[in-house]
TrEMBL record:
Residues 26-256 form the RING-type domain. InterPro entries: TRIAD_supradom. It comes from Oreochromis niloticus. It holds the Pfam family IBR_1. This is Probable E3 ubiquitin-protein ligase ARI8.
Length: 269
């Protein structure tokens, strides 16, 4: 079952008699597609106005983007909502609650650990050596009675010599993230003068997550995974780039960083 926009299949409505809700006359601030949900409007703890359907869709979007927490996201509002508040205000169905909780747990494990699902047993495996693509699954090893390793990159049973940091011997094994960095087109910033030859996709210098730039915005972006703000042009932190020149729309003092040839590894403390 696909949960994206599932709230619209049967619209959910607040009960006007529910005294625990703060019902208001304001516009639904999360109805991005102008669907004009029929439910009464209510205020979240941050003060912004939602309907249960629009809130469900917004939180589904956050989960799809890899988040494990729910943040308002309205301009100048980074208020984090508890899952209990989201569950109540979104009027989550039992099926939606199951999906939310499983996805939150999976996203959290990816956020805090370098983990992927083993292709042999579908259990979560944490990679200890980030320089080696060959990873051993202890659960499969016990079940099979022999060492079971899979490729961290193509997620198939390992073939070839080890250790390897580039690819295994399975057909088609390649680093799609590096291919994207190598083959993406250059962009011309509409709001930043004097910049040319900047790739349209960068790997976040902090966590390695791929970020694509909207050329209409300024040169600074916030990574959706680690929330670090960095300059898309020179790849320095915004505080280091704009902080030195006080220019958010001007050329960087260090120029345009070359195309990245490796993916940074998130060294979480």
């Amino acid at each position: 079952m696909s949960f994206l926009n599932s709230a619209n299949e049967k619209e959910k409505c607040y009960d006007p008699r529910d005294s625990t809700l703060k019902l208001v006359d304001g516009e639904d601030e999360f109805d991005f597609l102008c669907e004009d949900f029929k439910s009464p409007r209510a205020q979240m703890s941050c003060g912004h106005v939602v309907t249960p359907s629009s809130l469900t869709n917004w939180c589904l979007r956050l989960l799809k983007e890899g988040d494990s927490k729910f943040v308002c996201g309205q301009p100048k509002c980074d208020k984090e909502w508890s899952y209990a508040e989201v569950r109540k205000m979104a009027l989550l169905t039992p099926e939606e609650m199951e999906h939310f909780e499983k996805t939150m747990a999976l996203n959290a494990s990816k956020h805090f650990f370098d983990s992927k699902l083993c292709p042999g047993c579908n259990s979560s495996v944490v990679r200890k050596d980030v320089s080696n693509l060959s990873v051993c699954c202890s659960l499969c090893t016990r079940k099979k009675g022999q060492n079971y390793e899979f490729c961290w990159q193509c997620l198939r049973e390992w073939k070839g010599t080890r250790p390897r940091s580039d690819r295994c011997d399975n057909d088609g094994c390649s680093n799609e993230a590096l291919k994207a960095l190598t083959n993406c087109e250059d962009i011309i910033f509409e709001s930043v003068k004097g910049v040319s030859g900047c790739p349209s996709i960068r790997a976040c210098p902090t966590c390695g997550s791929l970020v694509e730039h909207n050329r209409k915005k300024c040169k600074n972006v916030i990574c959706p995974r680690c929330k670090t703000e960095f300059c898309f042009v020179c790849l320095n932190l915004t505080s280091e780039c704009a902080g030195k020149t006080s220019q958010y729309f001007g050329a960087c003092s260090t120029g345009v960083a070359p195309r990245q040839t490796s993916i940074p590894v998130w060294q979480q403390k």
